[in-house]
Design a protein that fits this description.
98 residues; mainly alpha; 2 domains; 0% strand
């Protein structure tokens, strides 16, 4: 079975329109990088992908959740807070929240 064709990375004019619609300022090259999945980058031949940004985003999300749990549950042990954070930032709860 042949591999499916992926859509190309959106041109900068499209990402500029997206940023304008959001009403915020975002580094355009960074936004374009965020939109490139590893599978597309591999097929396109060596272009950068969003995995490092994904790592950073996961870390930021984890620390935000950790802070909220720490503040909300002052009497809960560290091991329980760690389990709660892991359950909160796992794929299933995040997909449900999205």
């Amino acid at each position: 079975m042949a591999r499916s064709k992926h859509l190309p990375v959106p041109p900068r004019t499209d990402t500029d329109a997206l940023v304008e619609a959001w009403g915020t300022r975002i580094d355009a090259p960074l936004l374009q990088l965020a939109l490139v999945h590893r599978s597309y980058a591999n097929e396109a031949g060596g272009i950068a992908n969003n995995e490092r940004l994904e790592f950073l985003g996961d870390s930021v999300l984890s620390i935000i959740i950790a802070q909220k749990l720490y503040e909300q549950y002052p009497d809960v042990a560290e091991s329980d807070l760690s389990r709660m954070r892991a359950a909160t930032v796992s794929q299933q709860p995040l997909a449900a929240a999205a």
